[in-house]
Amino acid sequence: MLVPNRMLSRLETEWISGVLILVVSLAATWAFAPDLCQFVFQCGCTHLWAGGMSHCNTHMANAKHCPWCNAGEGGYALLFLGIALPQAWLSFRPRSWMWPLRLVAALLAFPVLGVMEAVALGLISGHWR
Ligand SMILES: [Zn+2]
Question: What is the Å distance from ligand 1's center to 66 Cα?
């Protein structure tokens, strides 16, 4: 039941803003993941709305395959969790941070952690050798 004159408690507004920040930052991570591997590996991936991973060099027999797209479902899940878990923490945890700061931090976690993961993956897999 709606109580029109009741102010939302601080806990309720933090919870609502945390959920919204998490949803927005996870959606951005999911939407721009192909742009990230194109940025690091020049693999042919493009915006999700322009074909996504369908143009990746993993579909070409004689190309040096993109390690990000070649990680398999388990590897991809680990890469995603390595970004999503810090995003979840940033969405809810820093209680002294106002919601705009938590939103910016959660959004920035994707390019910062994603590039770090991709570079580590490229080095481990010997992609640039
Ligand atoms: Zn790729």
Answer: 5
Q: Exposed e or buried b for every residue in 75-91, given b needs 16+ CB within 10 A?
A: eeeebbeebbebbbebb
Tell whether the torsion through CA atoms of 116, 70, 84 and 34 is positive or negative.
Answer: positive
Mean confidence (pLDDT) of the chain: 91
- Two tokens at 120? 């580590």
pTM for the model = 0.86
* Residue 35 alpha carbon to ligand 1 centre in Å: 8
DSSP designation for 7: P
CA atoms within 13 A on the CB side of 124: 9
Residue 45: closest CA among 58, 55, 59: 55
Length of the chain: 129
What's the gap in Å between 111 CA and the centre of ligand 1? Answer: 15
- Indicate the angle between helix axes 10-41 and 99-124, nearest 10 degrees: 30
The predicted-structure confidence for 57-73, as pLDDT tens digits, reads as follows 989 988 889 999 999 99
